[in-house]
Amino acid sequence: MTITKTKIIATIGPSTSDYQTLKKLHACGMNVARINMSHASHMDAENVISSIKKLNKHQSSIYGPIGILLDTQGPEIRTGVSQSDIDLKTGDIVNLTIRDEVDVETSSIKINYKGLIKNVEKGSKISIDNGLLNFKVLTKDKENLKCKVLDGGKLGSKRHVNLPGVRVDLPSITKKDRKDINFAIKNNLSFIALSFVRSANDIHTLRTILKRKKSSIEIIAKIENQEGLDNIHEITQAADIVMVARGDLGIETDLADLPNIQRRIMYASAKWGRRSIVATHLLESMIKNPTPTRAEVTDVANAIYEGADAVMLSGETSVGKYPVQCVKMLKKISAKTEYFRTLGYEKFLQDNSDWQNIAISARDLAEGISADAIVIITRSGQTASVVSNTKPFRMPIYAFTNNQDTYSHLSIIGGIQPYFIKSITNKSKTISNIKSILLSSNNSKKSLKFVLIAGVYSASHTDSIQIIST
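Structure tokens predicted for Pyruvate kinase:
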């Protein structure tokens, strides 16, 4: 398997939940498995977790670990229940109502959000079913919004509702989310993606829950609306990882501005030294087709040029016909794109700590002497993170740790190839062990030269930079 810097997140669903398919996904490049709690039950999730833990136990370390990401549903607004699809034609006049006795009728559509009437004004736009159906508010009373259908189509049961530009008065973490978060903690998962993050307080709320349970799970902030975008810098500093969640983001903001919005989020991630994920519609056409469109290939490449740590597949691997081919395609695109430098957002990094400056020095030294790799010895993974921030060019970063949680967290950090070793207590023995591992995994070379950063042998974070030859 070709080792690439860009990590691949695959959503697991009916197309990929069996053990053999998960094994194939891992073998061709999946680094993180995403469980979407908008669709998965706890029983579904337990089966996937069991299979992945089995894979992590038996697969060769050359593959690296599979991290597990639980994605919360978040405060969703949906339409009511319908026995059959309702055909809405452009120009129709319909009522959107919060009345409990209505589900979905020809002239009235139930919305399960009591704050709808209060929060939405005349002239506002409402989107349903991921923007396929759109409405303009004409008038409102205590229980109804009288709307004109701007874009018609068939309305099914319990469809997702977006209120672009409207501040939704719903909790950032719902009762269902809390149950799912506790499930993630119980199963010692690697990452939790918090949906519809609007401010740093949303991250702090989840962080408090995790600390109370003494959990090391890392937090992914999903940016999905204008409010989250407006607060992107404070959110990024509070989170461990930031996701450009382009599905809802493309509805809640101006779709034509989405490429620029993506770059703003990627810039913020680089500025504050946080990991970044680009998600949604990467290879959407491959849900049904064996090859992607040219535009999709270019889109993935642009995310990599922007410095994304990871790219994420959704329907392509959860319900698509070609999940393994999708992962292979992302791997191929990464290998070609990483031949070029990123756009350079890492130059704006705001971390001026000694720790980060040592990482920059190690990168410059490694590039200057044409080292084969940068090697990190770490317990917490923080040294790996600060080196990843520097974006070494065409150079692998090998991170060795004796901590299982850290080993799992390294699965999402761009440029890092993780290795688990049982002990890192004795420095000379550890370096000797590392030399043997790297020589065996680089069969084409009889000798190697690498820059070593050891962050575990002193009270300070990073105590040395060394040039090591085998």
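The two ends are 24 Å apart (CA to CA).
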